[in-house]
């Protein structure tokens, strides 16, 4: 695809947008009213209105980096066994081909016309921005990168923040579907979630990037990395000198951390 390359220096400059990581949990959060979905709705009222949203979702992995480049991305129902109402859900936001062009020019991302918006993106955005009137695109997780590579890629996204682009990571700090339970949470899950939160608060991004050093707690909590990796993009795009808050916290089904992370530029 030959998308015109847009020089972001020609776009209006804004104060740096916050960056967000949302623990998205079950797709059923699209339909349910709970403490997490209400917090997401409240969060949107506190944010500057984005010019566009760039989402790094746990649910799109590719060989090499790709960015959705359609003018109108499709809604992808990438799950099984849920109520019909969830499959009927459509999030009809416009795409952001110009931002995809910037990603192609500056990150070497392939402009993708096939993927669209998966539930890691739309299940959250339908709560944050239910009008679906802000341009949205996704950046894929490159299977060929290690955790440090994902963090460095996030650092390269930072210039977009000063052009009104909200960078949103969607996954879960703790994500182990094999060990879900309705009887409390696992000690290893709470331990790992608290370890990552503490590292973020003290701006120790190296500890987050090298989370595997936490041994069994990390292995149980990140038994496949795709839900954890979007957090690294958010931290990379923010850098270490940011104000940290956690709009949501808690564990769902014993092994899904619903912690969300907001990072704002430091006060002048």
Report on the architecture of this protein.
With 268 residues, the protein is α/β, with parallel strands linked by helices. The protein has one domain (8-264): Protocatechuate 4,5-dioxygenase, Chain B (3-Layer(aba) Sandwich). Helices cover 31% and strands 18% of the residues. The protein contains 9 helices and 10 strands. Strand 8 (251-252) and strand 9 (256-257) form a beta hairpin. Helix 5 (147-156) packs across helix 9. The chain is globular and about 50 Å long. The chain starts with 18 loop residues before the first strand and ends with a strand. Residues 1-6 have low confidence and may be disordered.
Provide a concise account of the structure shown.
By secondary structure, the chain is α/β, with parallel strands linked by helices. The protein has 9 helices and 10 strands. It has helices at about 35-45, 85, 95-105, 120-130, 145-155, 185-200, 205-210, 215-220, 230-240, and strands spanning about 20-25, 50-60, 65-70, 110, 135-140, 165-170, 245, 250, 255, 260-265.
Supply the key terms.
alpha/beta; Protocatechuate 4,5-dioxygenase, Chain B; six-stranded mixed sheet; two-stranded parallel sheet
């Amino acid at each position: 695809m030959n998308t015109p390359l847009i020089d972001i220096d020609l776009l209006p400059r804004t104060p740096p947008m916050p960056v967000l990581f949302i623990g998205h949990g079950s797709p059923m959060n699209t339909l349910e009213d709970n403490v997490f979905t209400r917090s997401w709705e409240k969060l949107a009222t506190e944010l500057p209105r984005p010019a566009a949203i760039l989402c790094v979702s746990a649910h799109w992995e590719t060989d090499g980096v790709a960015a959705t480049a359609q003018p109108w991305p499709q809604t992808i129902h990438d799950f099984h066994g849920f109520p019909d109402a969830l499959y009927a859900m459509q999030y009809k936001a416009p795409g952001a081909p110009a931002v995809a062009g910037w990603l192609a020019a500056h990150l070497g991302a392939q402009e993708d016309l096939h993927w669209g918006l998966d539930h890691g993106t739309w299940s959250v955005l339908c709560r944050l921005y239910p009008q679906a009137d802000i341009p949205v695109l996704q950046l894929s997780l490159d299977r060929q990168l290690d955790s440090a590579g994902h963090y460095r890629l996030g650092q390269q996204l930072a210039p977009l923040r000063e052009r009104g682009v909200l960078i949103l990571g969607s996954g879960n700090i703790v994500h182990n579907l094999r060990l879900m339970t309705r009887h409390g949470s696992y000690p290893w899950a709470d331990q790992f979630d608290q370890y990552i939160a503490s590292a973020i608060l003290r701006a120790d991004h190296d500890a987050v990037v090298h989370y595997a050093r936490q041994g069994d707690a990390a292995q149980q909590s990140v038994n496949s990395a795709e839900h954890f990796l979007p957090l690294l993009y958010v931290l990379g795009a923010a850098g270490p000198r940011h104000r940290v808050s956690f709009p949501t916290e808690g564990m769902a089904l014993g092994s899904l951390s619903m912690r969300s992370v907001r990072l704002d530029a430091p006060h002048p």
